[in-house]
Amino acid sequence: MIDTHTHLDSPRLAADIDAVMERAGDAGVTHCFLPNVDEESLPRMQALQA
Q1: Which of these, 32, 34, 36, lies nearest to 22 by C-alpha position?
Q2: What is the pTM of this model?
Q3: How confident is the model at residue 50 (pLDDT cuts 50, 70, 90)?
Q4: H/E stretch holding 11
Q5: For the purposes of burial, counting CB atoms within 10 Å of the CB of 48, is it exposed (0-12), middle (13-18) or buried (19 or more)?
Q6: How many C-beta atoms lie closer than 10 Å to residue 34's C-beta?
Q7: Helix (H/G/I), strand (E/B), else coil: 42
Q8: 32 backbone dihedrals φ, ψ, rounded to 5°
Q9: pLDDT at 48 over 80
């Protein structure tokens, strides 16, 4: 399954991002698309690249 609209770069998820990603994988998510909302979010999004 592909999640086409995630905000995994949200600072609210930063402390638990590994657990969030693991739960997504356990639920069958194989890929995620992160919509860019502003220029400041780009480094956070790039840090999540696999």
Answers
A1: 32
A2: 0.76
A3: low
A4: none
A5: middle
A6: 20
A7: helix
A8: -130, 140
A9: yes
pLDDT digits (tens, 9 = 90+) for 1-33: 999 999 999 999 999 999 999 999 999 999 999
Residue 20 Cα to chain centre, angstroms: 8
Tokens 């770069």: give the residue: 9
Tokens 């502003």 belong to residue: 38
Residue indicated by tokens 């999540």 = 48
Residue 35 pLDDT level (bands cut at 50, 70, 90): confident
Where do we find the tokens 């790039």? 46
Amino acid identity, position 1:
M
